[in-house]
Protein: Phosphate ABC transporter ATP-binding protein
Amino acid sequence: MTLIHDNMEKMDAKMAARNVSVFYDKKKAIDDVSIDIPSSVVTAFIGPSGCGKSTFLRTLNRMNDTIPAARVEGSVTLDGEDIYRSKMDVVQLRARVGMVFQKPNPFPKSIYENIAYGPRIHGFAEKKDELDSVVERSLRRAGLWEEVKDRLADSGTALSGGQQQRLCIARAIAVDPEVILMDEPCSALDPIATAKIEELIADLAGRYAIVIVTHSMQQAARVSQRTAFFHLGHMVEYGPTSDIFTNPLEERTKDYITGRYG
Ligand SMILES: Nc1ncnc2c1ncn2[C@@H]1O[C@H](COP(=O)(O)OP(=O)(O)OP(=O)(O)O)[C@@H](O)[C@H]1O
Structure:
C-alpha cells in the first residue's frame, strides 16, 4: 500500500503503472506499485540503495526486457495504451520514453552522429539540412550547442563527463520524446556539471514528463515537484515534493529523510 498525499494537484497521467511487480528469477524486487506520472513536471524516485528505484524506472520503457532474469507483472500505460502489449514496438516506445543513464554513454562516434543517428533511423529527418537542424535544436535545448558547435565532428567520448551527459540528454531529445527517464544522471559528475544538469532538467520540465531516480535528497528537493519514496521494493509514500520533505506521513519516509538510514 502506498500512502498518497491527498493535496496533490490533479493532473492528467502521461503514464500510469498499476499493480506493478518485478521479479529477478524468484526474487521480488518491486511489489505492487501503482503510480500516475503526470506530464510537464519532474517526478523524483528516492529511497535507500537496493530498494528498487532503478528497477521500477526501467519498467516505464521496458528496459527490463534486456535483463533475461527480469519479469514484470501488472500494467503500464502511456497515453492510456498498454506498453507491454505484444504488438508494442519497443524501439518506438524507447524513443517516446527516452532514458539517460548514471554513466554518460555516448556512442563512440562524432558529436553530430550521436544526435543524428536516432532521427535518421526513426525516419524523422533524412536530408542533410533536416538533420543539421535537428542536431542544432537538440544541442541547444540540452544547453550544449555553444560549447560544441565548432567541433561537431569530434568524438562524443572526448567531451567532459558533464558535456557527455548533456550530449546523452540531447540524443534523447532528438527523437522527440514525451517522457525522459533519468537514472541517477549526476552521480558520476562533479558539482558544477551537476548544477548544469539540474538547470537543464528545470528547463526541460515544462516540455516533457521527467522521472528522475536520485540518491540525493537535496537534488530531489531542487528539481522535482513530486516525489515517491521507495523502501524494500514498496512505494511507501507519494506526494508533492515539498510535503514529502517537510511533512512526511510515514515513519519510514521520516526516517529516511532525516538520515536515519540509507
Ligand atoms: N539485473 C539484476 N539481476 C538480479 N537482481 C537485480 C538486478 N538488478 C537489480 N537487482 C536487485 O533488485 C533489487 C533492486 O535493485 P535496484 O537497482 O532497482 O535498486 P535501486 O533502488 O535502484 O538501488 P541503487 O540506488 O543502489 O541503484 C536489489 O536487491 C538488486 O540486487
About this structure: Residues 24, 29, 47, 49-55, 67, 69, 215 surround adenosine-5'-triphosphate (CB under 6 Å). The mean pLDDT is 95. The chain is about 35% helix and 25% strand.
